[in-house]
Amino acid sequence: MPKATPERSCLACREPKDKGSLLRFVLAPDRTLVPDLQQKLPGRGAYTCMKAGCVRLAVQKKQFARGFKGEVLGADAEALVKQVGERLVERIASYISLANKGAKIVSGSDQVSERLKKGEGGVLFVATDISADIGERFRGSAKAKGIPVISLFDKERMGALVGKEMRTVALVLQSGFVASISSEIEKYRNFFEEERE
């Protein structure tokens, strides 16, 4: 018989979900609350939905203190939301670096334009500080070929991730990295979903 997937309840909304789809928190030795995105840190875990709203509600209702049976340090809602957001972005960045090492990224306007025309690519990253008209041109080309477009990094950071000078665009080519990056982007979007509505 297949092993049942463990479930946990969100501290905020109390909804039971598959443990892997939730956001896990653990306590550091000094009882500071730490988000454990990969669910690998040692110790007892407490869970919320992968949503900023549930993290805020859990803090507001003092559910982390209840879940960990005692005082919890660092349970500031906005600081936790920011920390989780930053960690989600860092996970996406690390996959971009890995894809680059695996020669599965092209960057720079000319190379990316050429690949987009051919419909090659899995995910297009457009710098947050790209000029509006150039950004729209790349977004339009990608959309026409059904390639998702993401803006998370400025030109300098994007260049650093692909080992170059500043880059306005970077295209992740079809490979195993696309699924991993898409999964992390989905988590990031879900986490901040309420803010965008």
**CATH homologous superfamily caption of the largest domain:** Ribosomal protein L30/S12
- Using only C-alpha atoms, the radius of gyration works out to 19 Å
Distance between the termini: 42 Å
Percent of sequence in beta strands: 15-25%
Summed up, the domain count is: 2
Order of helices and strands: EEEEEHHHEHEHEHEHH
Separate helix tally:
8
The computed structural class is: alpha+beta
CATH class wording of the largest domain: Alpha Beta
Assigned CATH architecture of the largest domain: 2-Layer Sandwich
What's the average pLDDT?
93
Q: What is the approximate shape?
A: elongated
Largest sheet: 4 strands, mixed
Question: In oligomeric terms, what are we looking at?
Answer: single chain
Low-confidence stretches are: none
Q: Strands of the biggest beta sheet: in what spatial order? A: 6-9-7-8
Number of strands: 9
Structure notes:
With 197 residues, the protein is an alpha+beta fold. The chain has two domains: 7-75, 2-Layer Sandwich (Hypothetical Cytosolic Protein, Chain: A); 88-196, 60s Ribosomal Protein L30, Chain: A (2-Layer Sandwich). It is 45% helix and 16% strand. The protein has eight helices and nine strands. The strands form three sheets. It has a four-stranded mixed β-sheet, with helices on both faces. Strand 7, helix 5 (132-144) and strand 8 (149-150) form a beta-alpha-beta unit. Helix 1 (52-60) packs antiparallel against helix 3 and helix 3 (77-101) packs antiparallel against helix 7 (176-191). It is elongated. The model has no long low-confidence stretch (mean pLDDT 93).
